[in-house]
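Worked example

This section walks through a single chain of length 564. The input is the sequence exactly as stored; nothing has been trimmed or padded.
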Amino acid sequence: MNFQKVKSPNFSKLLFLIILIGIVGTYTYFKVKLQIDIGPVSDTFDLLSNAALFAGKGIGYTDLNRPPVLSLLTSIFFVFTGLSIWPIFVVDGLLYFFGVIGLYLFLKERFNPLMSFIGALLFATFPLIITFTAVGYNDVSGVAVVIWAIYLTYLAVNKDSKYFLLSFPMAMLAFLTRFNNALIIFPIFLYILINRDKIKSSKNIIFGMLLSSLILIPLFLFFNAKFGNPLYPFLSFFQSSGGAGYTAATEHFAYNPDLLYFIKNMPVYIGAQSAVIIVFTAMGFAVHLFRMWNKSRSGEKSWSINIKNFKTNYKVPLLLLFIALFLISFGKIHYMFSEGIFFFIAYIVFLISKDYKMGLDMDLLFFSWFMAFFIFQSVYVAKDHRYVITMYAPLAYFLVRGLSWAVSELEVNFKGKNITKYFMAIVLTLMMLLSVFTQYPAIEEGNQQNKLFNQESIQTSNWIKNNVPDYKSKVIYADFPSYFAWYLQMDVKQMPFYKNKEKLYAGGTRDLNLTPEDYVLFKTELERDNPDYYISLVWARMNFTSNYEEAQKIGSVIIFKKIN
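Given that input, the structure is written out below as tokens.
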């Protein structure tokens, strides 16, 4: 065996990549298997129904306001296997897997293989990543595509500009996987701007943009044929994400105008292993300050700034002005203005760092990536814990950045090796694996209610099939229509209800403590729509007028039938 070859950086890179593939691949397999057992949830059924339509096997129910990529990929399975629920879990799981691998390769551009492995595994095992992998949502899969879009942009700038022919189409696919991923335009163009001198052939940027626009043409044609407006789903998203001026139903479970919501919850989002990294980095910083203090006491120059060489004259005041403007206006104006202000802040920081040859371009890429989504999610009044998933990849980068620096500051050498680095790597890897093993059964236990409702939905749908021979010709409303639409293979309408006179939908309210006026408004709504059948979960305890009678009760589900 060639010992030198074994010790080569390429071997280490490949070794840690193989270990990462083994760990993440194993988790992906078991998570997909678990989700198949639990079954889908409401949003997943919408994407499944869209996939059926894209495969030419539409069931009559769709929600085409949702981003199409996850459904399009799932539809490929439907073409060859028929309609079933498992393909969307597989697609979501595979995208998660490739996203983690992409992040490892991306981090490898900055860190050694071991630190890159820690960073990728950190991302893969963040608490909410573990929870939402392979559930058929577009949160994790959307981030996975974003990782590759920004990684390919990095390669286009630093390796070969032909990568732009891939990076821009990948960015478009990221947008079409989750619409708010359009925000990656800020870190991408910032990185191109600050590294414009490195780009050998800028025409590839134009060609990349043109290729990405070609992806939209078939979608525009499809939406135009379906809605008479090629921009219909996109306009719906941008209208609903209107930033500070957007008003959501205050009784909706996700309504939360707190601009610091994600900062306050960050300790929960990052997990124990990240907390260890932060503490360790703080220790490294304390040791670094102590060394500087010792040097200054001994008369040795540790650092100094020569005011004569202070090249930033107008830049620092300009930076402070933009920071003040950002802080004053944050949450008070449309989020796009805050995004633009931060773009200028990042660019001025780059100019200052360039004066002192600090080399912050990659740090600014990841920081602008984080801030692009932090600004949007903080200003947007509808907040859910899973929205932090959009910020996880840059968080992993900065945690590893701190860890990598701290292990050098707290270095303990043994036979020429920094054992601090290996010790921390072992501890963190074990902690991350332990977090998966402990959270996995908790996910299974916490989703028993969802599993039960899926079973009840199937039983309810089967009862209708067996007892209503012409059920597909009937008008059916439901609190959770996507479940029954999928299992009945027909269009089922959404039944709204009211909470403190605000119109809401099942699953979207904070609680069900309803007022008498809310009940009256609901009855009025039901009588106006006048469906043949109403499948109720939320309103199981409600006494209807003589227009409806209870036809069947299955678990928590009641089927109400209109009396002719």
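What to look for: The longest strand covers residues 548-554.
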